[in-house]
Amino acid sequence: MHSAVQERTPARLTVLSGPSGVGKGTVVAEVRRRYPEVWVSVSATTRRARPGEVDGVHYSFLSDAEFDRLIAEDGLLEWAEYAGNRYGTPAAPVRERLATGAPALLEIELQGARQVRARDADAQLVFLAPPSWAELVSRLAGRGSEPPAVQERRLAIAQAELDASGEFDVVVVNDDVARAADELVSLLTAPSSGPVRGGATE
């Protein structure tokens, strides 16, 4: 043995993604509530904080210059632009957490999940799916009184996002928030034995 200090095996990164309106944030909030020991990555964003949001808890709020610097230094695992603002996952806190042998959870959009997979082939990608297409439509429609053209575009994007479920290692159906949270935590803490394709689908 080359050292008296036993090296910990880095834990596996778990990424949760899925279509808009499927309830990713709700499931992650339930994970935080029931399993406070689970570490959830805090995304960085260039948008302004909304009322009630706390810097470093909900997001790390950065200036455009700070975000540019992170990109230049390869300091983001993934990033994307939505509605004129940029969002990304700072790499350093995630790497530090995984190096201790403890699991880390990222809740990000599909585009970001693909970037993480390209950078880290060992990452476990979990797709959160609605119980049915009709359920997703009702959740998206219930978000406000948008013009029909906007709703149609939102549904078309959601359909394309749903079609991407085959790119993921495991599909978790969000038919019950508490059950979905339990299933996600069991995936987080399962020993890594390489990607397991095609989990529970319905």
Number of domains: 1
Low-confidence stretches: 1-6, 194-202
Helix and strand run = EHEEEHEEHEHEHHEH
Instruction: Report strand %.
Output: 15-25%
Largest sheet: 5 strands, parallel
How many strand elements? 9
Shape: globular
Question: How confident overall, as mean pLDDT?
Answer: 88
* Spatial separation of the terminal alpha carbons: 48 Å
Determine the number of helices (DSSP H or I, runs of at least 4 residues): 7
Q: Taking Cα atoms only, what radius of gyration do you get, to the nearest Å? A: 18 Å
Could you tell me the CATH topology label. Rossmann fold
CATH class: Alpha Beta
CATH superfamily: P-loop containing nucleotide triphosphate hydrolases
Going by helix content, strand content and strand pairing, the class is: alpha/beta
CATH architecture: 3-Layer(aba) Sandwich
Widest sheet: strand order?
2-7-1-8-9
Helix amount: 25-40%
Main location: cytoplasm
Subcellular location: Cytoplasm
Pfam family, one: Guanylate_kin
Domain Guanylate kinase-like: 11-189
